[in-house]
């Protein structure tokens, strides 16, 4: 899309007039090919200007005072950083600036701190960035913006300028830094980063009745900017460049520490809760079914819910080596979801369909939300490939119908349609935004699974046709996070099978869509104090909260993506960011449990069912900041997340005496009588933690950890039962014992 052209505020006009009239003092001026970087002081602004030779320049308003009495008191410079100390009648400013240039391009970072002399509130603050032409005038040209902040997602603007040819820029505001300001003023950083051209970027949220505290220093900006000479020629280049620039800034970004959580013991508690808590179950026609939400007896059972728990449970049983009776109980009722009149499994249990009240569009027995058909089929196929005959039969019997729907809609699915007539009930989520665009990707995944199970190439051809239908939607492919992530893996698999570049490009594009929808900041105001938001992915484009089920499935899909990519050239920026997502998911997911949250954070009203804070079933919805959480309900179908985490991150070694736990995904695991070898995935520029945990079985023994890149790895003991190591990504690790 295009940024709006020349829609600017009086503050932008005023700054432009000051700069063009040269009523400024130049504090710094340096040439970093092809940029000239200068720092200028006006009566009300400390401006940092990055001017590209022959192209567009950007002016960053590092410090601003409406009192128009800004004065420089002192400055300091060393090899890596410039410091500016300024005063105004309103308070003191401290600005830290660093600029670097290498083969990747120019990178700029500045942080601004303000100490008010008196308490006051801030009804308005100007946007941070203004674009100028080489003559010093507000630009009269177009820029293509590819990404801008939506809601509580990362404070990003990503754009390219073709005329005059000026390359591409990723702007990232570290919203974590603004926490103290929001906490004291009762504001939030939602939608504070504007993408409208030529005046854009971050603006402090306006306050109404709560003031800044006099004498307290506040961070009011922490800005990271990556410049590139590249102008992407298409949507696929846009995606790859975005990930490269994001990885470059991510390495500079302050990041919170991670903590180890004992998901093994949590899995055992969650299994007991699911098995015994009556609020998790309904009973129909002689079978037991999981409710979608705790104590939701008004809504019929859903196939997606049963499978969302059953599949991770099977993975957990394989890892654990025991027998889980709950698996057979869930499997026993699956066949009841098959509708022989339509020729497919359906969302709602037919025998309980009378419970649907039509209060929402999808609460009708034959109204299908497009992704709800394909997601259960994907999980049925995964179970079938594990040897489950019930799942295989249901899956294969549903394929003809599924293909007929895909071909009817020409691989462009609406939001809702009638299963029997294929009449469209709701075409788009918003006018002009299209339907569920990533469904073509999860459909392709389902077709590839059918090809695996049957060997019939018609399914392979269907997968290719569906994949090609996504080749024009760019950063608008994302409809629902888990489906987008599964679709990325399907495209990678198609590329491996065909070597057609479009499928690899689509894989990169779909994964980039995921990172457009994450929160690369940590909320530390209001109830956000209790939930580590950093690197969370939002379930939908416009979702105001994060949700456990979609996060779990993105987690699982990224693991599968790494497995698919292990013998393919995964771009470094993707490897880095995907591994970091996994690391922070392990740090974050436990906080979806109401047990670990303060009671005052939980909503007094619940839309579906009840919330029981005492049980190990997670909330669906966690809000960030001043809003309470759990208003949607307590999500039974998200309760399987520890069952998915344990098999992917815990490895038994030394005859079961110890467990190996790694924060990054791993591959190539080989366990012998005296050593274990594995490859830690990710990128060598970042590090994660590796734990050796005493299982309590047998006598403790000595272990040593070494890495291909690091040699002997330094350890720090966390307690009497565990040792923690820090290891970099993309290397082989050897654990030896005596």
Walk me through the structure:
By secondary structure, the chain is an alpha+beta fold. 30% of the residues lie in helices and 26% in strands. It contains 15 helices and 36 strands. It has an 8-stranded antiparallel beta sheet with strand order 5-6-7-8-15-12-11-10. It has a 7-stranded antiparallel beta sheet with strand order 1-2-3-4-9-14-13, with helices on one face. Strand 29 (666-671) and strand 30 (675-680) form a beta hairpin. Helix 4 (263-276) packs antiparallel against helix 15 (641-649), helix 7 (370-385) runs antiparallel to helix 8 and helix 11 runs antiparallel to helix 12.
Provide a concise account of the structure shown.
The protein has 738 residues and is α+β, with helices and mostly antiparallel strands.
Catalogue the unreliable spans: none
What distance separates the N and C termini? 62 Å
Average of the residue pLDDT scores? 94
Tell me what portion of residues adopts beta-strand conformation: 25-35%
Global geometry: globular
Q: If helices are DSSP runs of H or I spanning 4 or more residues, what is the number of helices?
A: 15
From the helix content, strand content and strand pairing, which structural class follows?
A: alpha+beta
Largest sheet: 8 strands, antiparallel
Helix content: 25-40%
Strand order of the largest sheet: 5-6-7-8-15-12-11-10
**What is the radius of gyration?**
27 Å
Q: What's the total count of β strands?
A: 36
Any descriptors?
738 residues; alpha+beta; eight-stranded antiparallel sheet; 30% helix
Topology record:
Elements: H1 10-20, E1 25-32, E2 35-41, E3 45-52, E4 57-64, E5 71-77, E6 82-88, E7 91-102, E8 105-116, E9 129-132, E10 144-148, E11 155-161, E12 167-173, H2 179-185, E13 193-194, E14 199-202, E15 218-228, H3 235-252, H4 263-276, E16 281-284, E17 287-290, H5 303-320, H6 325-332, E18 338-339, E19 344-345, E20 367-369, H7 370-385, H8 389-408, E21 416-418, E22 424-426, H9 439-454, H10 457-468, H11 481-498, H12 501-516, E23 518-519, E24 536-537, E25 546-547, H13 548-565, H14 572-588, E26 621-622, H15 641-649, E27 650-653, E28 658-662, E29 666-671, E30 675-680, E31 687-694, E32 703-707, E33 711-712, E34 715-719, E35 722-728, E36 731-737
Antiparallel strand pairs: 1-2, 2-3, 3-4, 4-9, 5-6, 6-7, 7-8, 8-15, 9-14, 10-11, 11-12, 12-15, 13-14, 16-17, 18-19, 20-21, 21-22, 23-24, 25-26, 27-28, 28-31, 29-30, 30-36, 31-35, 32-33, 32-36, 34-35
